[in-house]
Amino acid sequence: xxxxxxxxxxxxxxxxxxxxxxxxxxxxxxxxxxxxxxxxxxxxxxxxxxxxxxxxxxxxxxxxxxxxxxxxxxxxxxxxxxxxxxxxxxxxxxxxxxxxxxxxxxxxxxxxxxxxxxxxxxxxxxxxxxxxxxxxxxxxxxxxxxxxxxxxxxxxxxxxxxxxxxxxxxxxxxxxxxxxxxxxxxxxxxxxxxxxxxxxxxxxxxxxxxxxxxxxxxxxxxxxxxxxxxxxxxxxxxxxxxxxxxxxxxxxxxxxxxxxxxxxxxxxxxxxxxxxxxxxxxxxxxxxxxxxxxxxxxxxxxxxxxxxxxxxxxxxxxxxxxxxxxxxxxxxxxxxxxxxxxxxxxxxxxxxxxxxxxxxxxxxxxxxxxxxxxxxxxxxxxxxxxxxxxxxxxxxxxxxxxxxxxxxxxxxxxxxxxxxxxxxxxxxxxxxxxxxxxxxxxxxxxxxxxxxxxxxxxxxxxxxxxxxxxxxxxxxxxxxxxxxxxxxxxxxxxxxxxxxxxxxxxxxxxxxxxxxxxxxxxxxxxxxxxxxxxxxxxxx
Length: 540
Description:
The protein has helices spanning 2-11, 35-41, 75-86, 104-107, 169-177, 252-264, and strands at residues 21-24, 52-62, 91-102, 108-111, 113-114, 117-118, 131-136, 138-141, 144-150, 157-161, 280-282, 286-287, 293-298, 305-308, 312-317, 321-326, 333-341, 344-352, 361-362, 366-367, 372-377, 385-389, 394-396, 407-409, 416-421, 429-437, 440-451, 474-478, 487-492, 498-504, 508-512, 519-526, 531-538. It is mainly beta.
């Protein structure tokens, strides 16, 4: 019994009718790849709405003599099931084709797990520009029978048992390939029933309710949760272990996480295709009150029925396009544009008016004259760029005059102002950051700054260095000797492209570097007073 409990933890999958069978064999004890954090860390409001067309190739695994295997005439039905699950999230499936693998060794698939990946030579038989779907007679992972298994969380390969190919198991495993965890995931910690720790525990998605691990034992035939204990889980979520027939949908947050992976993941870039027939809308992400914004639907058969949120007005409607304005010049917030066509409904979230106030601003309040300091603004919803003001008088120049009396900074339109010169004039005042979009400049988040050239203070914080350095698949930063607080971490490549953004409390933080190519990177972290910069070597 002790061995079975250990294996249950490794696979993070639930048992069906016996201890020898599991629903999903995907190894989920892997570090989070926080692509949304990387996108947010760039400091620009660019909602990743898609659409994305992804190529899928089907491998029908038969016995060596060519007998057995999934019915190839039903592949189109599998594609329909995938599109039904992913189309609402602006992800579309292109069937790149199908082929046969005639091998008894793979017909009844059996493979171990190593380093959070399923290890098998079958994955060497692949189509490199597609998600590869292997349909087999049976699946054994680590000695357990499974209905499906993805090679890893975020991958280009998954396997489904033939008798489960036309069920919710197939979109479940594709969800793993696109960076989704189970809704009951506990590797990062157990999610509170209230969801108060949803950003750091469970499946790391806040619009999927806490899940006690669903199954036939606590979901009835009407798809109602009957397990009690204060939980209200989503029994219809495809990434849960609810009854297969109940699993029909995924949340908005899950869709966003998948689209972010498709935008950022090196592993997934080659699977993005262009052959899907995708109806989509074209239009700006920002709508103002004083000038119209045009939205157009393409690749859709009329008639088209347009609607907008109550805080907007349609001023023109030609059928294929509309022009809209915000109703209130002073309003800043979200709205939506929606169009229903013969193939379905497209929903687009937009921002109305000037950007909102940046969430915060970090940087030193006391500075030395003639010093280089760093300031960082929080995300300003609705911002497409940022504007900085320094204590007056200040100059925006390149290069900086390191003998000048004025505050100076490089030209910069992001929320990270990493090269600010304090000047020798001992000018005190406010450092301010504001979001900017086509409607104007939003409100300022500011910090009052004074010159202090008399020394003193609480002394330097201990040095935090990455270890190991060089790093292979991960490295660790130890903030445990720092005061209680939130610390932000950035990794840039040699071309100043942001490759990682994350946050941590005063504790150890392990960062996954599997997807970073070999080379030299620049590690920045804000320690509450200044931004510390150092080199990081990645060598796999």
